[in-house]
User: Fold this.
Amino acid sequence: MQLASKFKTQTPTSLASIAFYGIVGIIFLILLPFTGFPPHVGLVGITSLIAAYGLLMNRKWATWLVGALFFVATVFSLYTLYFVLTSDVIATAGFLAYAILTWIFTIIVAKRPKDY
Assistant:
């Protein structure tokens, strides 16, 4: 099946979750050299891109991967928020948005119909 037809068969909420995980993966991989190459940032970026691919291709394992990313992203963002909260407003806003959007898109992926 061609890639364009895969996008046409997705619902708007599924497309939003695919876009979220894809964009987050790209952002984390772009930020990797700026943060001194910590392995957890690269791992979250690569795993987010794999989750976006799995959601696009309607793979069964994508839901489990998004569930694992939920816990990893929650711990990562809340831990970073704890230490950055009073010192950097931009980082605080970014990680707070990342945590909230992760929770929202995890619920969207968990509620999507399992027709694959």
Observations:
- Helices lie at 3-8, 12-31, 39-56, 61-84, 89-111.
- Residues 11 and 70 are 21 Å apart (CA to CA).
- The chain has a mean pLDDT of 89.
